[in-house]
Amino acid sequence: MRVPFSWLNDFIKIPDSPEVAAEKLRQVGVPVTHVEYLSAGITQVFSGRIETLTPHPNADRLRVALVDLGKEKLQIVTGASNVAASDIIPVARVGATLAGGKIIQETKLRGLPSLGMMCSADELALDFKEYLPPTQREGVLILDSDTPIGIDLAPMLGLREAILVLEPFANRPDYLSIYGVAREAAAIYHLPLKNPDLYAATPGTLDGKIQVTVESSQESPRYIARYASQVKVNASPLWMAVRLNAAGIRPINNVVDVTNYVLLELGQPLHAFDCSRIQGKRIVVRQAKPNEKMVGLDEKTYDSLQNILVIADETGPVALGGIMGGKRTEISETTTEVLLEAANFNAGLVRRSSLKLGIRTESSRRFEKGLDPIGADWGSRRASFLLQQFGCQIADGAIDTQPAIPKPQEIGLNLQKMKKLLGVADLELSQVVNILKGLGFEVRTEDPLFVGPPLFRCDIHEDVDVIEEVARHYGYSHIPATLPAGMLLPATVDAEETFEETLRTFLSSVGLLEMLSYSLGDPPYFEKFYSRPLVLIQNPLTEDRKALRPLLYPEMLMNLRRNLHLKNTHLHFFEIGKTFEKLAGPQEKRSLAVLLTGDFPWGTSSNFYTLKGVLERLWQALHIETPFTLHEETKDQFHPFRCASIRHKGHGLGILGELHPNLLRSLDIDQRVMALELSVDQLQSLAGRFKMKPIPLYPESRRDISMIVEERVPAGEIIEFIRSHGGTLVEGIKIFDVYQGPQVPANKKSLAFAITYRSLEKTLTDEEVTQVHERIQKELASAFDATLRIA
Amino acid sequence: MSEAVLDKLDSLLDEAKSKITKAQDEKELEEVRHQILGKKGELTALLRNLGSIPQDKRPAVGKKANEIKLQIEQVLDDRLQKLSQSSLEIRLQNERIDYSLPGESLPSGRLHPISEVLREVKDIFRGMGFEVARGPEIETDYYNFEALNIPPDHPAREMWDSLYLDEKTLLRTHTSPVQIRVMEKRKPPLRVISAGKCYRRDAVDATHCFQFHQVEGFMVDEEVSFADLKGVLSTFARLVFGQDRQVKFVPSYFPFTEPSVEVYIDCFNCAQSSTGKCSLCGGEKWIEVLGAGMIHPFVLRVVDYPAHYSGFAFGVGIERIALLKYGINDIRLFYENDERFLRQF
């Protein structure tokens, strides 16, 4: 909403600058985002009448004008061809500043002095040229013939006009009007508010002119029709065009401009029909019938009008109630009689209709927030007043379907409760009463306090609504700031959140960088990784953000890819977040994923085993007693021989592996990428409670085993064998060499293990260790058909 | 005989002293020690011959010999001390390093800036006694809107353009549903915050994203006042943005709070922007940091709380806090995950 400051001052003389007024309005909750200036910096432009206009003696294209500025007459040499004697035009005097900072100086043109300039719309930075008659678009602006001579044109042309730009809240449709903002200003400044000039209601019905039937007063609580004849459709006076333009609505013609002017001024949407085109001279406000359609003022055909409220004549809809008028009854140059509609439509109905039709108009924006029925009466009479000013004949009387407006429910207030809720101990009853009266509340009784909200405040329903009114005009800044008292109970944290934070701390401590990717992605892309049904958004903004991610790493991979294309080549990412699965309904799961590519800063390159290392460390960090196991897995998106499912006691927890080169190639990635994805929900259920293990008192003893086995024998099985067969003295087994090469027969590999032996009770003797070690060697040799290499 | 031995002892001492002084390193010194005090050393040999000295002279000679031995040992030790000190000094000198060479790389993971800010915000409220709860990202229309005093067709719904899974299920547009979920299960007094991802049907640009993070908080008890709201949120704003920040409370509108308020801090960037409009506040001098209000009685009635309870609630946009805190000018940076961006935090 754009509120021209001069328009606001029609109703209240604000004693502050626009900026100060804006800040004061903000402090009571009128959301003024900023103040904007039109035609900024333009000065010294006055109205002048061309007395005489004669050819320039020395130039064919120039003419010499004598211009009457009231107190003086100036000679101005002009090249404009669209002016004639007795035209009233804007004159920039010597010393004036025009658009772009141009300063007018006394000059001589072909020998004759020129003491000013006649101005065009461009020179005055007026941005509604297309509204002007064609000759004035490039030529000099010609003012209305009743414009007084010699006046400063700044107010009339909106030069240097300050605009308060508002973004009103959904509960205050009254801020979508100049008058509504003026009302709030009057309460701030304690100044009287001037009423707009209204057409004085005259008794009578519109018998013989038009008939109105409203089928549902629920859908359309009030419908007021007035009738104007002797209408001459042409351009509005410049002052009205300037104001509409300043407030953001393009001028069209005098009749339409009047409805828009009243919409902006009072917040009441109106519609003007060409009455001669209403078939049967009868309109019905009703639900659209099946198969009905209407061409709107926007030239579009609306043919799906089910459950839409329409204004219809004998042949069908002529307007979509509260949203838009129809083309068929549009005001045109030939219009001579006008039916002026000022109605009140059900807010929910207008909102539903506007959403369904996909159109939002200045009208629907206001109706959907709930307008008061008094507005229809004021709007109708204000527009009639203006049309009368423009020479129209307003018929006596009106059709009004709700002439009596019920008073709003009165609300009881407890001053004590108000003080407690606001935390203001010294709030006085008299302050409260003054504030509420200033805002138009009717204070019915003071003790106990009962108030009636003004009719235009459809948002006031219960005592807290009134308390807010008091609070914002009392001033939020005057309310003290206190810290609440209460029991000092320790603030607990949700266990899931705590666990995720533990994971974040751990993963970053091993050098991984946390990433946050989008939860929404492209369904076909996700389907490459996930074969079950996806959870889909019904109304996605774009198709490539239609699916909720079923896994974390696919969307992370897109981020990794972007990084690689930016030449960030060594990347170690992790993410923790929700994934979504479609079971009976959509299900949220918690997941953890890691992506590695390139080298670590300390030299190691990312490979399957670095990723497995992360997993092993994670197991330690979470104190999970039983180790995870890896099982060969074939997945389209992974390297066929470098991918494993992660299990714990037989339960699947996730997947780990190197991504398939085909997948990477399809994403333009030309380096190896490792991926890991794990269920956080399951991890959390495994995480153990930590208990310290005693530090051994006696030394360890290390022995190595080096052996040659079949290439396909997994080293893990050998380690597991040693662990299970070694006995209690075996403390740890580490593999320190895997070798295939010249000294090893084909299809075989050499493995070297270091076993540490330790007793918790004593220092082991050499013989004790040797005895166990030799037994292990012997058993390994037979179990794995291994050749021992004795060093 | 004994005089000759005594003389020899004296000369041995002189000789030893001169040899010890000449020794230039610990190895040479060790040789000297060996020559004199070793098994075949000169002094050892001399002492071995003590038997040839007459009985009555032996104590005097023996005493002298021991004194000489102690003296030599003393000189040896002194010299050793000196030599090892100077060789250490030489070693240390040779170990001079170039301080300007870079440090070695260590694992250096980081949390995402959003995670960092979430931690900070949660810590501040935990410090003020707010426990941390959570709720689902997929919500019902009831929890996301209706229970929060936003019925269907309410014009305020346009404040939260939503992504729907079906008619009654959507991605939560704010963390406020957690307020209802917690209050349904528990009775006051309550001080709770909840953090998490939210979604809106917004196209992505420098200031908008369909995905963002919010921390919702609320407090319900007997006699919780607007003054308490001001106290808690001023404390929060100053802990995040600095103790010398001014905090301003401006009336606002949310369907689930009444009175409602927007909290602003005075712009901390204006002083730095010497020319033209401040890029942070646009010349307005104030920056909005969060929205809040007294919980609407409708919401308290929805969860069947008796009328003598009151409370306040607030919502903090985490991306916004991070943008302000770190001077980030484009929200997309958070979700593009450029390593060069993430590494900075």
What does it look like?
The complex is a heterodimer of chains A (791) and B (345). With 791 residues, chain A is of the alpha+beta class. Chain A is built from 21 helices and 39 strands. In chain A, the strands form 10 sheets. A 7-stranded mixed beta sheet of chain A has the order 26-30-31-35-34-33-32. Chain A is elongated, with a radius of gyration of 42 Å. In chain A, 41% of the residues are buried. With 345 residues, chain B is α+β, with helices and mostly antiparallel strands. Chain B folds into 2 domains: 2-95; 113-342, BirA Bifunctional Protein, domain 2. Chain B is 42% helix and 21% strand. Chain B has 12 helices and 10 strands. Chain B has helices spanning 2-22, 26-37, 42-48, 58-94, 113-127, 141-144, 177-185, 226-241, 297-302, 318-326, 333-336, 339-342; strands spanning 131-133, 138-140, 164-166, 169-171, 190-199, 211-222, 247-254, 257-266, 286-295, 309-317. Chain B has a 7-stranded mixed beta sheet, sandwiched between helices. In chain B, a hairpin with a 2-residue loop joins strand 3 and strand 4 (169-171). Chain B is rod-shaped and about 130 Å long. The termini of chain B are far apart. The model of chain B has no long low-confidence stretch (mean pLDDT 91). The chains are: A alpha+beta (791), B alpha+beta (345). Chains A and B meet through helix 8, helix 11, helix 13, helix 14 and strand 26 of A and helix 5, strand 1, strand 3, strand 5 and strand 6 of B.
